[in-house]
Design a protein that fits this description.
The chain has about 100 residues and is mainly alpha-helical. It is about 50% helix and about 10% strand.
Length: about 100
């Protein structure tokens, strides 16, 4: 999903997943079997694609993205708290930039 929303490569998506799970850059490099320089380069690309500048901002964007109700079917969602929830349908997913 992250790749589709932000245009991340497979390697960038794996790095983002590692960071979202709480790994440090060094731990992510070790788990992904790449150098720290590679991880830093990939992180800069992830920052650019997600329009973030710090890891804390990136984590907020990733957490928000992972909690979105992404749906590809056309079935309506049930009423929630007296209103109707709008479903996001691929491929027209949009994510608000968090500042």
């Amino acid at each position: 999903m992250l790749a589709a929303v932000f245009g991340l490569t497979a390697a960038e998506t794996r790095l983002a997943a590692q960071l979202a799970s709480g790994a440090s850059l060094a731990e992510a490099a070790e788990k992904l079997k790449v150098s720290r320089t590679t991880v830093r380069t990939q992180l800069q690309s992830v920052f650019a694609k997600t329009e973030t500048r710090r890891q804390a901002d990136l984590m907020r964007v990733l957490q928000g993205c992972l909690s979105l109700p992404l749906r590809t079917d056309q079935a309506p969602l049930p009423a929630v708290a007296g209103g109707q929830v709008q479903a996001l349908r691929a491929p027209s997913v949009s994510v608000a930039r968090i500042r």
